[in-house]
Each structure stands twice: as structure tokens, then as C-alpha cells.
Amino acid sequence: SQQGEEDPQALSIQEGENATMNCSYKTSINNLQWYRQNSGRGLVHLILIRSNEREKHSGRLRVTLDTSKKSSSLLITASRAADTASYFCATDAWGGGADGLTFGKGTHLIIQP
Amino acid sequence: DGGITQSPKYLFRKEGQNVTLSCEQNLNHDAMYWYRQDPGQGLRLIYYSQIVNDFQKGDIAEGYSVSREKKESFPLTVTSAQKNPTAFYLCASSIFGTSGRAIYNEQFFGPGTRLTVL
Asked: pLDDT over 70 for what percent of chain A?
């Protein structure tokens, strides 16, 4: 079964606004990652946050992790049309080793010009 | 350029046929993965391999087979036993490093192969 659940399923905002997506998961994790997928393409890794970290930044991206609530959020500031894509969270279960990530169903983000 | 490639980009198969999807990486990664993605869905793990000549079943391995004879290559065969093979297939690789007691597993994805059964 899929570990992560993104919320909302779809989000449409105006260019320049901030976009926030949430991810909830069920079991203990070693780390949580966010990926972006443009339509019909492969996934691109955005950011990884370890279970002992609470917040991480990368350019216009800000990720938070709350292990007590088993949730994470991805904030994209000052959105651009090129940010239109699907965003997935993926968890790497503690002790799971190199046995693949567990992905949510994604949030489809549309940036209106 | 380092990267991970998949071929073909589009593949059409008649019912009852086996087809093989190619995945090659020159990133010197030990671990490789195959995922299946259906419309509006996340990725589901088919098979993974941590080292040459070894591979493990993922969540939905039935109807699929793989081989890992070389570090760079991890081909996926979709057999006639797979009842609903039409999907987008993604291959990934990772270095699977460790930092102290923490394990990290950032994955690099290929561009995908879209398989359609006619």
C-alpha cells in the first residue's frame, strides 16, 4: 500500500503566489523526499529531509517535517509558470535499505500566468 | 554526460507478447529500480536490484521479470502473464549512501517508457 498521501490532489494558483502541498505518512521513516514530475516525463529529485531534521531550504523551496504528526509540507515561494507539474512525496522507511521508495499519488500544481 | 536512459519512449504490444524495456545508467550507481505509474497515480515498485546478479520483488512483481547482469543495465520484461500492462514505466538508480547511522536513498529517474497494449 502507498505510504504517502499528498494533499491537495490538485492546486491552481496565480503566478507569483506561494504554493503549499502537504504529505502524510503512516510508519516510521528514515527520510522523506519530494520529487517533481512534468507531464509525461521522469521524476526529478527536489529535496531530501532526514527524520532528525525539522526544516530545510533549497532556493524557493522550503520543506518541513513533523515526525510526531507523520507529516511534511512543501512550500514553493514566488511561483512561476515553469513550476506547473505534479509533486510527489516519497518515504524511505527506517531500516528499509535500498528497497525503493514509497510514493504518494501526488499533487498536481497549475500556475496560472 | 552522466545520466539514466530508457528506451524506447513509446512501445506498443499485442496481447500475448512479451516485451523488454531497456534501462541504462552511467552514474556508477549500485541500486536500480523499476516503477509503474498509472494515470493520476503515484509510483508502484515492480523490482529492485542492489547489486549485480541480485534483484528483489517489489509490491507488484507478478507478470514481470528482470535481470542484472551488468551494473549499468537493468532491463524489465513485461510478460504475457501481466493482465493489465498498459502504463508508464519508470526506471531509477541510486547510490544508496550512508551518513553515520542514517541511510539516504535519493533516486535519479529516466525519462520513462509508455507501454500500450493493443
From this structure: 90
